[in-house]
Amino acid sequence: MKYRFMRFPEGKAKALTVSYDDGSRYDRTLVEILNRYGIKGTFNLNSGTFAKQPGEWHMTAGEAGELFLTAGHEIAVHGYKHVAPGQVSAIDGIREVLDGRLGLEQAYGRIIRGMAYPDSGIQSLNGGATANEIKAYLKSLGIVYARTAGGRTNRDDNPSFEMPLDWYEWVPTCHHENPKLMEYLKEFKEKDIDKVYCARRFPHLFYLWGHSFEFDNKKNWNVMEEFCKAAADSEDIWFATNIEIYDYTQAYRSLQFSVDNTIAYNPSLYTIWFDIDGTRFSIKPGETKKLA
Predict the structure, then answer these.
(1) Hey, what CATH class is 13-253 in?
(2) Beta strands in 33-183 (DSSP E)
(3) How many other CB atoms sit within 10 Å of the CB of residue 88?
(4) By the 8 A CB rule, do 174 and 208 touch?
């Protein structure tokens, strides 16, 4: 029996992404830092709260698009007016997500498929929709993943670095205010996945989230600067947006293998990498490849 595990582009076993919410003017400083170190992120926007003119707390749709999209970052749904789906009925939640997605797609002329839950995330409060109801309608609305608001403290963070088991309940590693942030990053960077027991060599993901205005409120932009600088000096990490990670994972899952695992076929549009008992393989789009 041979064990096969997904590897990210160029055969890397680790990926890192960041996700920031609300589209405030402080995202400008955040993007400057991310771009300086080659870190890629997803920015979750409420299309119903765009500023009418430049200079307001929120950015205009045009300002946000120029800032994020021209630098290769992702724009994703954060609702229309920042209403948490777990606090309202299913029909109100559907309207909030649908209007939010429609507004972003109309503003940017592209398909928007990602999302971050506002406020309490997927937690059902005050008789709102349940997690299962929310996940079901998100799938029907064309949303393919949704990030929760975990990781603010050591009690609700997710330092295992595992890929999401449920794309509609994508729990991040931690919030940038988590006191163990740099400790987690050090552990992530130093982990040699090729030396882990052969049945546990899963790909690892570090997922950071927050709001850029929090840095301005606490005057601690150095936290993000130090994090990005420390992450960027690792050549074995793939820096990607949320949707890039999702799409690559789906492409890997679409690979087809012969019964004896000696032949692989890649029906996707991506070059896919994987590991079989310590040996790296790559397979091009449309390629059929002998593995032994």
Answers:
(1) alpha beta
(2) 41-45, 74-77, 174-175
(3) 18
(4) yes
Residue 126 contacts by C-beta under 8 Å, 6 or more apart in sequence? Answer: 87
- Positive or negative, the CA dihedral 191, 192, 193, 199 is negative
Can you give the length of the chain in residues? 292
Cβ atoms of 67 and 27 within 8 Å: the answer is yes
Beta strands in 124-211 (DSSP E): 174-175, 204-210
Range list for CATH 3.20.20.370 in the chain: 13-253
Residue pLDDT tens, the chain, 292 long: 689 999 999 999 999 999 999 999 999 999 999 999 999 999 999 999 999 999 999 999 999 999 999 999 999 999 999 999 999 999 999 999 999 999 999 999 999 999 999 977 788 777 789 999 999 999 999 999 999 987 555 556 788 999 999 999 999 999 999 999 999 999 999 999 999 999 999 999 999 999 999 999 999 999 999 999 999 999 999 999 999 999 999 999 999 999 999 999 999 999 999 999 999 999 999 999 999 8
